[in-house]
Fold:
Amino acid sequence: MFFASDNTSGVHPRILDALVRANDGYPPSYGDDAIMARVRDRLRETFEAPEAAVYLVATGTAANSLILGTLAQPYETIFCTPMSHINEDEANAPEFYTGGAKLTLTGTEDAKMSAATLRKAIEAEGTRGVHGPKRGPVSLTNVTERGTVYDLDELGRIGTVAKEFGLPLHLDGARFGNAVEALGCTAAEMSWKAGVDAVSFGGTKSGCMGVEAVVFFDPARAEEFEFRRKRGGHLFSKHRYLSAQMAAYLEDDLWRSLAAQANAACQRLAQALKQMPDVRFSHDTPANIIFASWPRGLHEKLKAAGAHYHLYSGSETGPEDEMQEARLVTSWSTSEEDVDRFLEVMRH
Amino acid sequence: MFFASDNTSGVHPRILDALVRANDGYPPSYGDDAIMARVRDRLRETFEAPEAAVYLVATGTAANSLILGTLAQPYETIFCTPMSHINEDEANAPEFYTGGAKLTLTGTEDAKMSAATLRKAIEAEGTRGVHGPKRGPVSLTNVTERGTVYDLDELGRIGTVAKEFGLPLHLDGARFGNAVEALGCTAAEMSWKAGVDAVSFGGTKSGCMGVEAVVFFDPARAEEFEFRRKRGGHLFSKHRYLSAQMAAYLEDDLWRSLAAQANAACQRLAQALKQMPDVRFSHDTPANIIFASWPRGLHEKLKAAGAHYHLYSGSETGPEDEMQEARLVTSWSTSEEDVDRFLEVMRH
Amino acid sequence: MFFASDNTSGVHPRILDALVRANDGYPPSYGDDAIMARVRDRLRETFEAPEAAVYLVATGTAANSLILGTLAQPYETIFCTPMSHINEDEANAPEFYTGGAKLTLTGTEDAKMSAATLRKAIEAEGTRGVHGPKRGPVSLTNVTERGTVYDLDELGRIGTVAKEFGLPLHLDGARFGNAVEALGCTAAEMSWKAGVDAVSFGGTKSGCMGVEAVVFFDPARAEEFEFRRKRGGHLFSKHRYLSAQMAAYLEDDLWRSLAAQANAACQRLAQALKQMPDVRFSHDTPANIIFASWPRGLHEKLKAAGAHYHLYSGSETGPEDEMQEARLVTSWSTSEEDVDRFLEVMRH
Amino acid sequence: MFFASDNTSGVHPRILDALVRANDGYPPSYGDDAIMARVRDRLRETFEAPEAAVYLVATGTAANSLILGTLAQPYETIFCTPMSHINEDEANAPEFYTGGAKLTLTGTEDAKMSAATLRKAIEAEGTRGVHGPKRGPVSLTNVTERGTVYDLDELGRIGTVAKEFGLPLHLDGARFGNAVEALGCTAAEMSWKAGVDAVSFGGTKSGCMGVEAVVFFDPARAEEFEFRRKRGGHLFSKHRYLSAQMAAYLEDDLWRSLAAQANAACQRLAQALKQMPDVRFSHDTPANIIFASWPRGLHEKLKAAGAHYHLYSGSETGPEDEMQEARLVTSWSTSEEDVDRFLEVMRH
Structure:
């Protein structure tokens, strides 16, 4: 019963197989391998963006920070939510890769900024001339860090505000597939068609070993990105092993199937939990993450039965009936059996 | 006939196998996996350093830059050779990770600094008070970027100079195994026993997919390193796949066997080349890299026959008998057949 | 009627005179002048800190950023208020000088953090291991950017929290004298006796031409600060002209007298404004800054009469009786006549 | 007998007077003062560059580093000489302000790069794709740090090479006036007409208290520079005191007269020294700096007589007749009496 994170799951057999097959021969290093040429084509098709500049790195923090380093000047500020991964979970990596840009935190509802809270934050940062930071990129995450999903209207309105102020828009797509599946839309619709300028397209959390694609819809960013990636130590010599993962992940839209599996497991879990009188949901759960609370006693029973997940609130000890908030994350490899066993424990 | 770089070779079967085996289950992320615990023990044994702080990253540039970022202040200068990888081939990554430290280039012979050229460089950088940079770490590479090897006496004398000035000593060990095998010494002798404070212990060039160990002999550096690694985007969520590579690489000293194979292939090649009247060696070749020159006509014949390697000098076109310098690198997977075929082409 | 900022006022005659007197001869550069030796002694006396490391720079942004760069690691976060100068008015200078540290904004009341809001912010930043930033310095401003003043109890409680978590405490003292005069305390009481580790002691806003002292109560910070100051371009070659300003500013506690004059002018203004039915104060005004609102019509009358000050809220145009918030700042050179003329205009 | 540095000299009476006169009233802060408007016009006239973006800062390190930070990307390298101030005497300020760019040192003759040594350095840095740094700005100093002067032909040829490779050209003009006077040319001829893109126009070493002008001939750089200046802590609130210095310095070409005086004192000194059999010149001395050697015994006599200057070589103690190299710098305030007294001591 493993719901701690989608990054504790393994590598999907088709991706592992691709790695083994990539082990033959002596292809050129540093991204000049033939598999990468195919990945480039396939990513451009996936995003319906024939001119896009496309790169691979191995971690999500690298993908996001390198994009922000390319989009932002050091004297600018990046607009994001307080719970965004770039603010909370990257140990100042965005500040590092931008050379010291600031993060301005927007108001949120359900862990999402809105066109209105974004506009308010932007307007507040443009009143002090050279004394304040200059307005820089807008960055959002879909699926959000609380499991909610921006729909295409919400994204489009945010994209419109960013464009109005001439600010680039970055999408942290660590769970890009899960959001696309939740919305039933295309990769293009959830990115450039909504005004996104650059996206990190996550593979690691969804069946890959460690690979994220970086997509700039404006190829003018390409050269700068390449130098910044190398300078960050994120250009792999044996690049074919990143290429092979991504190639298999894209083939026959495996990335969508895996995301759909993860989402389905989450829905099975969520629907059952919603029937339970003791369970209170913090947010809607359209993708593969649940934030919900139930009494401490139940948590203890689950842990004892071998369930793995994180607690987000509450002290170490306390009364049995005290409500504590849990985060449950499903992945491509979450089985119905595990979900049902978890529910079983909760019911008894 | 692939002699372009050891990083065009594949993953050794035992290491690939370890990756496949690591694919089971839901171990904790970010280095808390059980395999990493074993890797820690095994690395400390290998280096006879029970207190060492030990980490894994995926690229050599990350390993070197993160070490230098931890050892150097931004207002300091790092002493290294002009041809060092950190100076020539990391696109300012050391400057980035140190927050803007400088690199002071020492005099060299055979691509090596000596205790004397190091002392001269150090002394020249200590005369301007706060106007110049402060003296910072010394950094050297063994095997050097030209294929030569510092012996233990040379290392020890450099370590003594560094200690005399109170400067930390970093060893870029991208080809650590090849140097140890060339010297017939232990990992400890080539590192802390010679005064080295931190080493990057390379796996990628020698049969791994993408993993380098970082070893600090003083564990006081540990916490800072961990924050810097995360902030650089170099902490892997699915860390078990780095751990698995390194575990297999260390088991039964596979890292030494693979280095020995690469060195042997190089010696076979070098000894035959030395018999050829048209071939001039630029340096001694004790490890797995040869720098040597022969006439353009021969180069053309080799390329036509399918030999892969880099040219280091000479214009695109010119007379047939013009000497051009080649770099040949052997790896764990270089076969005697490939070596012999290469020599065959040269002879006829 | 000049109430726009204390930095629009001129240089006090005694300080200007000191500059003229310093113009003789060929003293050593870069802080080795004899006047600076006296300044060092006098600053240490003023702060009752015989071991303090003491430096001069020319701007407040330089003083604060260099202190924070010395106290904070790039992977740390600095705790400050949302309206602090380092957050709002230094165009990412703290991020620049720390190499990319983050600013964590505390809750505030009357533009002041409290021991409780500080503790809450610190606790929230210590839960994510290497994924979040590490906890770094606490930074506060006295007089605050809204004109309120931390009293010694408030400071002491904040100092206690900082110490409990092992975090250094920085005091932005751009208006240090105004706060000391408002509290009727000593420089030592408002700094190290309350737990402050480093302070910027402002001269520019209070009768100097452009000089701020940096005081580290722990002299171990000295060498690092000196390199960082030079590297920031803030070490003056003709340093004697900084020394001369500070020497005159300290002599016979001129800094206290000038602050007292500015505060007195502010009290005269505030007391009269408080009698006016249309005026609403945003905060208490114990030092030399007033934030207060009155109807747009009155603002227009004042501007027409030649009053200079900043508006902090309200649209360009609107109804005559709409309330708009003004910031009024008095300085050492504000005359009673100017204050009275301003009040006169308001009354009629 | 003060020949240690031009920065030990005082402020010229006309400039000091301008500072006193600027002390009236309450002008706007941060460069919006009326004097600065005049300075802008006058600098544009001086440089015959009506569109130039023009700024003031207080130190030469600030001027150079801010220009380089604006011209260079962090993944680029700056081409300069080994003895350039930005390499030797700014404690990594260029690396800091560029966010970690590298400095590539060119070959030199008489402390000057040539079009040929520059081209060689540029070509060597363009062979490694994203592995090396990208080629960035060219930076030179006129008068050089050894007292030699690039003539207009030399500058023009360097400018042509920079343009050929599309690299911006920076001129460190700490002693701009001395070079212009040595060449008998105009400010425009020594800057944009020779291909220079940005210049720091020094005042501090030549009669000002602490002010340098930054001139970008392409005004598109303006906004970025303004944010970078503020973020570096180099935007002065009481900016009028920088403006006043520069206004007086430019009025009636005072900057040229003061430079001419310094150069004349140097020529008087040099011509007499050249007659002395024991004196060997290291370089030509067309401006206000002499590097020359004479026996230790003579140095001791001079020091005993109260002469101030720096020794550039030689051990602390040694034989009386050992040659030691001195640096002598004259300034606007060097008197003929002082020169003659110095020569007198040497002769007897």
